[in-house]
Amino acid sequence: MCGIVGAVAERNITPILIEGLKRLEYRGYDSAGVAVFTNAGKLERLRRPGKVSELDQALAGEPLVGRLGIAHTRWATHGAPCERNAHPHFSGDVAVVHNGIIENHEALREQLKSLGYVFTSDTDTEVIAHLLNHKLKDHNDLTAALKATVKELHGAYGLAVICASQPDRVVAARSGSPLVIGLGLGENFLASDQLALRQVTDRFMYLEEGDIADIRRDSVAIWDVNGNSVEREAVQYRDGAEAADKGAFRHFMLKEIHEQPAVVQRTLEGRLGDKQVLVNAFGPQAAELFAKVRNVQIVACGTSYHAGMVARYWLEELAGIPCQVEVASEFRYRKVVVQPDSLFVTISQSGETADTLAALRNAKELGFLASLAICNVSISSLVRESDLTLLTQAGREIGVASTKAFTTQLVGLLLLTLSLGQVRGTLAPGVEATLVEELRRLPTRLGEALAMDSTVEKVAELFADKNHTLFLGRGAQYPVAMEGSLKLKEISYIHAEAYPAGELKHGPLALVDDDMPVVTVAPNNELLEKLKSNLQEVRARGGQLIVFADEKAGMVNGEGTHVINMPHIHDTLSPILYTIPLQLLSYYVAVLKGTDVDQPRNLAKSVTVE
Ligand code: HGA
C-alpha cells in the first residue's frame, strides 16, 4: 500500500527519501512524489505517475536539494492514479502525505470550499492539507494545528507534514496506519515502515494509535491520544536480514506462523473506520462497482481456494450475496454460465499462480461485472490484470506451506464481505460495527492461540507413527479442516482427508479405528451439539479424537478424547483463529517425522506452471 518517508537533517535528504520509497515500493504503488523545503528557501515538489524510478529520473532533470522533506508512494483509494492526485498535497505553506482513508472527506471538502480553498485533486487527502492550513491561522504552531486538524478527521491515517514557515520539523500523526520514527545523530526520519529507513539508522521509535509527533534534527516530542506528552521507547532493530532470516525460529514456517498477529494487524491497517470497513480500500471505483454486484464467483488454488470456501459462508450469511467457489484448474477449462452482475474474485499469494491467472484471463471474455484480486504481491500479474485489488500485507512468505498468506487472505475476504454488505445495505443492523471491533481485537486473539504452541507440540506426538488422519469441521470450519488436512499432507506426508462432520456416516466412518486420529475444530456455535454427536460416532468406533474446542464449549478430556481449549472468539472470526493450532499441529508432526518442513518434497512455492 502507500508508503511514507520523511526527513529532517543537515545534509540533502532527497536521495534518502527516494531510497526509502524504493524500499517500500514492493507493497504497491501507482504514483510517487516528493516535497522538499529547498536550500533556496522554497517548498517545492515533484510528482510522477508510475514507479518510483520515474520520479527518480524526473529528479535527475529537476533536482530538489534541501534538508527537510516528505515523500510518498501512492496506491489510489480516492481519485485516479495520476500526477494531479499524487501526494504530497499542498495548501499554501503546507505539504502533506497520507496513508489511509478520510471517511468524512466530502463534508470537509464542502466546508473548506466555502472558506475559499480551491481543490486541485480528487483525493480525500487534499482536505487534510487545506484543513491544516486553515488551522494554522488560529494555531501558529504546526503541531498545535495538526492536533486541531486530526480532531476533525474520521477514518484512518498516517500523516507526515512539513511547512515552509516552520522548516525545522516534520510533524506526524498516526491513527489506523502505522508510522515509525528513525533516530539518527543530528538528523531524524519518519516512515510508514522501518524498512524504508534501514539505510540511515537502526534505532526506531514506534508511534502508537492517536500519537502526534514533532520531529526535529536533534529532538523528538510525542503526544498521546489524550494530548499528554509521552516518551516512546527507542528500540534497536536487531533482526538484520528481514524476511530472509529465520531469526530465533528453527524453520521459516514456524516464524511465519508466529508472524500472524503482526501481519493481520498490517492487513487491517488503513482499512477500518470507526464502525465501518473503508470500502475504498479496494480502490477508488470499489463503492460504485460493489453496489452493482449480485453474485460472487471466487476462483483460486490450494490454500487460497480454502480461503475462498470460508468466504462463501461469510458472503452468503452476512452479506446475503450468492457465491460460488471453484478451483482454478477446473474453472478455466469448463463451460461456465455466468450469473448477471457477478464479481470475479481471484485469490493467490504470489499473484502468478498459472491456473488462477488463466482463469482470470478467460473470465474477461465471459461477461463478469469486474474482477478483484486478493493477493500478497503488488507487482504481480494478477494484480496488474484485475480491475480491483486488495493487497494482503503478509510480507514475504518463504515456507512452501502457506500460513500467514492464508490468514491475511481470510481477513481480506471478510473486509470484502462487509464492504459488499455495507454498500448494498444487506448487513443486519450492528453487524458491521461489531465485526470491525472484533477485527481490531483479532491480532491479540491470534497471539493467544499462538501461546498454545507447546500444548500443540505435545499433541503432535499422537500422530508421529500414523499413516492416515481425518479432519472434521462444520459450517465455515469445514474449509478450515480442509486447510488443516492440506497442511499435514504437504509437510508431514501423512495421508489426511477433510470431511464436513455430517458426512462421516455416509462413508468415511468405515475407515475409523484406533489407528486413525480424527482432528476436529469446535467453536461454540449453533452447530456444536450436532458436532458433538458426530464425535460420539467416532469414539464409538475406537477412533482417537483431537478436538480444538472453544473454552466455553463444555468439551472435556476423556479416554481417547484430547480436548485443547481455544480462547473464545466471535463465531464469524473463528475460522481465522482455529487455523492457528492446525498449522502448529502439522508443523510439529513434520518436525517429529524429520521431513523438510520449509521445502517439502515435490512442491514449489509459487505455482507458475499449469
Ligand atoms: N486515500 C489516499 C491514500 C491512499 C492510501 O493510503 N493507499 O494505501 C489516496 O487515495 O490518495
From TrEMBL:
One of its GO terms (biological process) is fructose 6-phosphate metabolic process. InterPro entries: GATase_2_dom, GFAT, GFAT_N, GlmS/AgaS_SIS, GlmS/FrlB_SIS, Ntn_hydrolases_N, SIS_dom, SIS_dom_sf. Pfam families: GATase_6, SIS. It comes from the Bacteria. Its EC number is 2.6.1.16. Keywords: Aminotransferase, Cytoplasm, Glutamine amidotransferase, Repeat, Transferase. It is an enzyme of class 2 (transferase). Residues 2-218 form the Glutamine amidotransferase type-2 domain. The active site is at C2 (nucleophile), K605 (for fru-6p isomerization activity). GO terms for molecular function: carbohydrate derivative binding; glutamine-fructose-6-phosphate transaminase (isomerizing) activity. It is found in: Cytoplasm. Catalyzes the first step in hexosamine metabolism, converting fructose-6P into glucosamine-6P using glutamine as a nitrogen source. NCBIfam families: glmS (TIGR01135), PRK00331.1 (NF001484). This is Glutamine--fructose-6-phosphate aminotransferase [isomerizing]. It comes from Pseudomonas veronii. The gene is glmS.
